[in-house]
């Protein structure tokens, strides 16, 4: 599944 | 941060500055869709809720605040400014935005990373941004007057997400396991929505003539 990474994009 | 994403963010910022300058310098918002501006305000509010509880970087925070402030400034000009609001073609800007908001919200409830309020709202903002330009494109078709600054505004607004597509390809190949299907699919749809406009914009630019949309 998607990288539950921190939302670093605007 | 890579050059494609930075270029995308700067193009996005520039598009908003161009629109603000157009409205402030000409004291007119003719040809500009208030509905699209309000949809973008909803996109920013629902996407940047994390301003209150997570800090990514100074750049990230500053840009979010600028996007929120400029979005509301443009709406204030179009709704409240005594001169500008008279130039808003209300009877032409009639796109039924509920037909965009409701499906995007339902889709965000069905397809998301996690069933939490902030995550669903964030996902909603991703889907809504893909279609937020539609009222503006419909207004252009109706009024036919694509003045230079409004044309440049739409061109840059479409270009920023195209640059983000390049950024996602770059990150996919450079960051192991980096995937964001929801954002990728939505961003692709968003860029495709602009393709027709891009075609006529580039044609006008190559023929060095004023941009005109087909009948």
TrEMBL record, chain B:
Q: Does the keyword Metal-binding apply?
A: no
Which InterPro entries does this chain map to? ER_ret_rcpt (IPR000133)
Show the stretches that span the lipid bilayer.
Answer: 51-77, 97-115, 121-140, 152-170, 182-202
Q: Which UniProt keywords apply?
A: Endoplasmic reticulum, ER-Golgi transport, Membrane, Protein transport, Receptor, Signal, Transmembrane, Transmembrane helix, Transport
PROSITE patterns the record matches: ER_LUMEN_RECEPTOR_1, ER_LUMEN_RECEPTOR_2
- In the UniProt record, the signal sequence range is 1-25
User: Sorted alphabetically, which Pfam families does this protein's record hold?
Assistant: ER_lumen_recept (PF00810)
Give the family, as the similarity comment puts it: Belongs to the ERD2 family.
Give the protein name, as stated in the record. Answer: ER lumen protein-retaining receptor
Q: Taxonomy-wise, where does this protein's organism fall, top ranks first?
A: Eukaryota, Viridiplantae, Chlorophyta, Pseudoscourfieldiophyceae, Pseudoscourfieldiales
């Amino acid at each position: 599944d998607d990288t539950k990474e921190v939302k670093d994009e605007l | 941060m890579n050059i494609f994403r930075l270029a995308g963010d700067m193009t996005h910022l520039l598009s908003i500055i161009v629109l603000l300058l157009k409205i402030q310098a000409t004291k007119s918002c003719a040809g500009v869709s208030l509905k699209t501006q309000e949809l973008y305000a909803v996109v920013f509010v629902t996407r940047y809720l994390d301003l209150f509880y997570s800090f990514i970087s100074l750049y990230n925070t500053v840009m979010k605040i600028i996007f929120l402030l400029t979005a509301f400034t443009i709406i204030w000009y179009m709704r409240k400014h005594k001169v500008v609001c008279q130039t808003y073609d209300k009877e032409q800007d009639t796109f039924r935005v509920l037909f965009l908001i409701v499906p995007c919200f339902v889709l965000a409830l069905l397809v998301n990373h996690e069933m939490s309020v902030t995550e669903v709202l964030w996902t909603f903002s991703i889907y809504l941004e893909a279609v937020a330009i539609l009222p503006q494109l419909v207004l252009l078709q109706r009024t036919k007057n694509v003045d230079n600054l409004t044309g440049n505004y739409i061109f840059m607004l479409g270009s920023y997400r195209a640059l983000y597509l390049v950024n996602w390809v770059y990150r996919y190949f450079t960051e192991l396991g980096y995937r964001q299907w929801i954002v990728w699919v939505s961003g692709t749809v968003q860029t495709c929505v602009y393709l027709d406009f891009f075609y006529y914009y580039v044609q006008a630019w190559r023929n060095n003539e004023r941009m005109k949309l087909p009948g």
